[in-house]
């Protein structure tokens, strides 16, 4: 058995290293959704393997065009942040436009320069970012952020929506996978943080312990009566796309218990880049709305499983050697 001990220990070390892959293994990614823009674009969440920037670009016929706003980011996860957009550009747009929100590397000089600080790619080799529709308005911003890096744990009939920004009073409505409204809460004009939304008891009770569900938080404008009515209050849309944010919930016994969070980029559709040099453009697939990343599961899993198999085989050999 002793002669097999060294390779077994080596594999255990490899296994331990691979076990740490889920967070960083998904690579660079960013998600954003349709929104009404007065002076800034809001990012739901992003993850960077290195310091860099989140940058808003004009869409030029399916290609990533001129940069019109940026914000510096440190390596790691970020969520619910604003990127100020050039007001001169916004003044030239009447109505709906399409923009790219992409992650860029930094050359370390502290200044964003598109030709040097080029766009990053995700694990699929596509631009790490989102292509979203915006409606340009001088009446204020409208956006919502409900998506987190993990499923929201709930132990009562309510959920929390991280951010609702509206240019007038209205509501944030929570819808199930069928589009049925299962909860709503009023919001005021401006930015509303951590909005608690009561859920219908029938929906909450329909979930079993540790069962998960996919929900969507959508912004509605009040029709003036102060009461939410999905058939009367206007759902805010941008070119037919709702101003909304999808998120997951999991019913648990005790939501206050801490759990480890694995950073993922689930449910994403990445724009595909052309092969370009620094400072050139990349091409987006038609209808792309979210950035690059995996579509479920941890990229490190296969390697971990392989390491486990190797360790098991070596242990088995060691046992035979003693017989």
3D structure, described in words:
With 323 residues, the chain is an alpha+beta fold. It has helices at residues 2-18, 21-25, 87-91, 201-206, 301-322, and strands spanning 29-31, 35-37, 40-48, 52-60, 63-73, 76-84, 95-105, 129-136, 143-145, 152-154, 158-166, 170-175, 181-187, 190-198, 212-221, 234-235, 237-238, 241-242, 244-251. The chain has 5 helices and 19 strands. Strands 10, 12, 13, 15, 16 and 19 form a 6-stranded mixed β-sheet that branches. Strands 2-8-7-4-5 form a 5-stranded mixed β-sheet. Strands 1-3-6 form a 3-stranded antiparallel β-sheet, with no helix packed on it. A hairpin with a 2-residue loop joins β4 and β5.
Low-confidence stretches: 7-25, 264-317
What is the count of distinct domains?
Answer: 3
End-to-end C-alpha gap = 10 Å
Structural class: alpha+beta
Average pLDDT taken over every residue: 81
Looking at this protein, list some descriptive labels.
Immunoglobulin-like; alpha+beta; 5-stranded mixed sheet; 323 residues
Give a quick precis of the structure:
This protein is α+β, with helices and mostly antiparallel strands. 17% of the residues lie in helices and 38% in strands.
Q: Layout of SSEs?
A:
Blueprint: H1 2-18, H2 21-25, E1 29-31, E2 35-37, E3 40-48, E4 52-60, E5 63-73, E6 76-84, H3 87-91, E7 95-105, E8 129-136, E9 143-145, E10 152-154, E11 158-166, E12 170-175, E13 181-187, E14 190-198, H4 201-206, E15 212-221, E16 234-235, E17 237-238, E18 241-242, E19 244-251, H5 301-322
Parallel strand pairs: 2-8, 10-19
Antiparallel strand pairs: 1-3, 3-6, 4-5, 4-7, 7-8, 9-11, 11-14, 12-13, 12-15, 15-16, 15-19, 17-18
């Amino acid at each position: 058995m002793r002669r097999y001990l060294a390779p077994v220990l080596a594999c255990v070390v490899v296994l331990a290293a691979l076990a740490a892959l889920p967070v960083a293994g998904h690579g660079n990614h960013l998600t954003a959704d349709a929104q009404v823009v007065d002076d800034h674009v809001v990012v739901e969440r992003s993850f960077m393997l290195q310091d860099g920037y989140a940058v808003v670009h004009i869409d030029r016929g399916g290609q990533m065009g001129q940069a019109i706003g940026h914000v510096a980011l440190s390596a790691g996860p970020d969520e619910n942040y604003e990127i100020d957009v050039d007001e001169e550009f916004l003044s030239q747009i009447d109505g709906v436009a399409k923009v790219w929100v992409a992650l860029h590397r930094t050359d370390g000089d502290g200044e964003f320069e598109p030709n040097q600080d080029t766009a990053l790619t995700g694990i699929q080799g596509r631009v790490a970012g989102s292509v979203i529709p915006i409606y340009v308005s001088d009446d204020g911003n409208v956006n919502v952020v409900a998506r987190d890096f993990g499923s929201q744990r709930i132990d009562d009939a309510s959920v929390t929506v991280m951010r609702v920004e509206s240019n007038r009073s209205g509501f944030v409505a929570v819808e199930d996978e069928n589009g049925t409204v299962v909860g709503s809460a009023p919001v005021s004009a401006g930015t509303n943080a951590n909005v608690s939304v009561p859920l219908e008891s029938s929906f909450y009770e329909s979930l079993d312990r540790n069962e998960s569900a996919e929900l969507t938080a959508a912004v509605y404008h009040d029709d003036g009566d102060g009461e939410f009515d999905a058939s009367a209050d206007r759902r805010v849309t941008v070119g037919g796309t709702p101003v909304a944010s999808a998120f997951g919930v999991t019913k648990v016994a005790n939501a206050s218990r801490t759990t480890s969070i694995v950073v993922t980029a689930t449910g994403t559709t990445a724009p595909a880049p052309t092969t370009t040099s620094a400072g050139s453009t990349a091409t987006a697939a038609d209808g792309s709305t979210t950035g690059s990343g995996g579509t479920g599961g941890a990229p490190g899993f296969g390697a971990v499983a392989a390491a486990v198999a190797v360790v098991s085989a070596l242990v088995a050999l060691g046992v035979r050697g003693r017989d």
